[in-house]
């Protein structure tokens, strides 16, 4: 386990072009593996997770070529996955495992999906239920209850029948598993979302030639559709940008420019939170590629400051991945930050609520931990400390940002976990942090 020392900074200045969006890279990789022809993807994510998706596509019969110019070419299976010789290793990626389950379930083979220790603890019943209703036979480890069902997961694939499914929790991964299965099922599959989640899957499916329809919170996808290869550039990752957006809020004279960043409206809640906290965001230009908005933004802090905010209800679901870094900078705000309805954080790569609380306390913060969130008062000064990342990439990166305004140096234990989503993180942080 490696340790990274993060020193305090005076301000944050500079511009970045971020690696490709992890969520979009996953979906392009999986659909390219199913499609007919060769898909060419520029600015594919450098994180380990989407490369787990690529490796699974290779195991299922697709050909993956990684070019020197960082373009990735995927020659798909034209809708016919083969029986894999070994288990499909999803690494640390819950996205890979849940979405892949829906993609392979209609194929007449037996698939075993495995992952690392962290992934093996994460709940998989949420995708087993709808896929079983469609006719898939799925066996989980530890029982098939909502808590007990987890990987390794065995799928005995075969023909599926369309369903009308109401998602019990807001989850883009569950939605995607159902859409990917429905794409290949008999009949038209419908899915109802009580809270609208990120729509990268809908955009990616349409980019690859699929037809689907949205009416309010209801999505419908006809079965029996075939996909065709595409050429695409993956937008910069907004979830990775979140760390630097929050870092910019810490300093009154900060100036951050992010080029070619993904600005999908279903992800824009993060920008709303940054604005609510006192950030000034200026959009310099926006273009659309395959339904995804790509733009350049400039971020400063408005005079008077770094305010507080409450994150609850639908907003919690929309920024669930960014909550750790928002919470990590909460003590520096004027009014504090209150987080509710974020119980999902307890079953991510780690118990993120518990680890945020533990590490903020180690840095000298006062706070209250609830089952579904945190209450963190403002106007606090943090000091350097040893941070336990729990081998969770978002915890390691979140507390590297909190360390920028702490008194004294901070040691991030398990810093290598950042490579799961953002291998360049510490290099970029040193480029921007003025000391």
Structure description:
- This protein has 435 residues and is α/β, with parallel strands linked by helices.
- It folds into two domains: 3-20 and 235-434, UDP-n-acetylglucosamine1-carboxyvinyl-transferase, Chain, CATH 3.65.10; 22-233, Alpha-beta prism (UDP-n-acetylglucosamine1-carboxyvinyl-transferase, Chain).
- It is built from 14 helices and 24 strands.
- The chain has helices at residues 22-34, 48-59, 94-104, 117-120, 125-133, 172-183, 200-207, 238-249, 269-276, 314-318, 323-328, 352-362, 393-402, 425-432, and strands at residues 3-6, 11-17, 38-42, 63-66, 72-75, 88-89, 110-114, 137-141, 150-156, 164-166, 188-192, 213-215, 218-222, 231-233, 255-262, 279-289, 292-301, 309-311, 337-339, 368-370, 373-376, 386-388, 410-413, 433-434.
- Strands 16-17-15-2-24 form a five-stranded mixed sheet.
- Helix 13 links the parallel strand 22 (386-388) and strand 23.
- Helix 1 packs parallel to helix 3 (94-104).
- 52% of the residues are buried.
- The mean pLDDT is 95.
């Amino acid at each position: 386990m490696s340790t990274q020392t993060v020193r305090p900074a005076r301000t944050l200045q500079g511009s970045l072009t971020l690696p490709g969006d992890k969520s979009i890279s996953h979906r392009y990789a999986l659909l390219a593996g199913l499609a007919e022809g060769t898909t060419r993807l520029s600015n594919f994510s450098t994180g380990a997770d989407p490369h787990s998706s690529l490796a699974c596509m290779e195991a299922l019969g697709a050909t993956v070529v990684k070019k020197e110019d960082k373009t990735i070419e995927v020659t798909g299976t034209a809708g016919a996955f083969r029986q894999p010789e070994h288990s499909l290793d999803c690494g640390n990626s819950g996205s890979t495992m849940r979405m892949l389950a829906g993609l392979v379930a209609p194929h007449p083979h037996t698939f075993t999906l495995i992952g690392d220790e962290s992934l093996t603890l994460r709940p998989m019943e949420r995708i087993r239920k709808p896929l079983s209703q469609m006719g898939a036979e799925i066996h989980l480890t530890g029982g098939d209850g909502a808590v007990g069902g987890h990987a390794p997961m065995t799928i005995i694939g075969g023909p599926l029948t369309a369903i009308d499914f109401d998602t019990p929790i807001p989850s883009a991964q569950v939605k995607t598993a159902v859409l990917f299965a429905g794409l290949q099922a008999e009949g038209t599959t419908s899915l109802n979302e009580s809270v609208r989640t990120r729509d990268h899957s809908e955009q990616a499916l349409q980019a690859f030639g699929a037809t689907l329809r949205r009416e309010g919170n209801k999505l419908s996808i006809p079965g029996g559709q075939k996909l065709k290869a595409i050429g695409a550039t993956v937008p910069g990752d907004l979830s990775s940008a979140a760390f630097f957006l929050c870092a910019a809020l810490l300093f009154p004279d900060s100036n951050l420019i992010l080029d070619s960043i993904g600005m999908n409206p279903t992800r824009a809640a993060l920008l709303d939170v940054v604005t609510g906290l006192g950030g000034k965001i200026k959009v310099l230009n926006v273009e659309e590629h395959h339904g995804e908005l790509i733009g350049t933004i400039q971020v400063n802090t408005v005079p008077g400051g770094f305010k507080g905010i409450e994150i609850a209800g639908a907003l919690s679901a929309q920024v669930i991945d960014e909550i750790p870094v928002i919470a990590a900078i909460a003590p520096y705000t004027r009014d504090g930050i209150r987080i509710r309805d974020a119980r999902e954080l307890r079953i991510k790569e780690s118990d993120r609520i518990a680890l945020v609380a533990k590490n903020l306390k180690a840095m000298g913060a006062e706070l209250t931990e609830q089952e579904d969130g945190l209450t963190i008062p403002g106007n606090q000064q943090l000091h350097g400390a040893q941070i336990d990342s729990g081998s969770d990439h978002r915890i390691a990166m979140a507390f590297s940002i909190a360390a920028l305004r702490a008194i004294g140096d901070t040691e991030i234990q398990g810093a290598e976990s950042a490579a799961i989503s953002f291998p360049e993180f510490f290099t970029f942080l040193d480029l921007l942090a003025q000391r």
